[in-house]
Amino acid sequence: MLQSNYIQQQPRVTSGTSEKYTFSDIILGNEQIISSTTPCADFFFRSSHFSQSRTTCLNTASAVPRLQADNVTKLIQQCNEVNLSIIVLWKAYVVEDNKQLILEGQLHVNLQAIGKEACSVYQKQEAQEMVLLKFIRPEIPPLPARPSVEQLSCLIKTSLHYPESYDHHFLQKSLCVVPVTLMLTNCSHGEVDVIIDLRHKSTSPEALEVHGSFTWLGQTQYKLQLKAQEIHKLQLKACFIHAGVYNLGTPRVFARLTDQGSMCETSQQNSMPALIIVNSI
């Protein structure tokens, strides 16, 4: 039996210190365990991972106003920071001295940032050797580096919600219109200006092979302003003229922090291809 549990910390924006936790289970075997009502959750709340995650989250929430005013680079870097704990519940059948034993256990890993290596055991820091005390003249701290294009492309996370398969009678009605919802999530602690461009980037034959011969109905461009960590749903309509398999992942999203006039809109990272099957009935 193997089961993985994800615990995401979502602090409430209140004057108190109460937090809200979301438990999500992924079953990799035949046995399901509800982690939020078992010793798994109790072990998590008693562990050092919980204390460290809680302290980090509270410090981040209290530092938001200062970051918005003084350190744009750090504000953008926080878009990839998370307070996520992964708990793996495992069971092993072991034969020892002609006896079959059942061993069960848990493995906890605390994630602080996306793309960084994490370990279930904290690494002990080696004691620093004694060195002679030196008096030096303090240097002027360097100016903060401008955020990279890769960092700026993580301000907004996008996802498309649509039916994986759609049936349409093309002989009765030549145009097939499918409702699609574009989810926009502001990952930063500041306001973000967003531009959504629905026009296909190119009309070359190569591009048509990628997204097929379909079009978006209505506006071709939207301009929005999302508040800190706001989630916005944009209702779209995709139009098809014949059956086939299509990739709906063509909208281009550009974003920049509000009140940062010198910072141009940066293209946001695209999600995975969003394939839909249109059937003719």
From TrEMBL:
<protein>
    <submittedName>
        <fullName>TPPC8 protein</fullName>
    </submittedName>
</protein>
<dbReference type="Pfam" id="PF24546">
    <property type="entry name" value="Ig_TPPC8_3rd"/>
</dbReference>
<dbReference type="Pfam" id="PF24542">
    <property type="entry name" value="Ig_TPPC8_C"/>
</dbReference>
<dbReference type="InterPro" id="IPR024420">
    <property type="entry name" value="TRAPP_III_complex_Trs85"/>
</dbReference>
<dbReference type="InterPro" id="IPR057651">
    <property type="entry name" value="Ig_TPPC8_C"/>
</dbReference>
<feature type="domain" description="TPPC8 C-terminal Ig-like">
    <location>
        <begin position="155"/>
        <end position="257"/>
    </location>
</feature>
<dbReference type="GO" id="GO:1990072">
    <property type="term" value="C:TRAPPIII protein complex"/>
</dbReference>
<feature type="domain" description="TPPC8 third Ig-like">
    <location>
        <begin position="14"/>
        <end position="109"/>
    </location>
</feature>
<dbReference type="InterPro" id="IPR058540">
    <property type="entry name" value="Ig_TPPC8_3rd"/>
</dbReference>
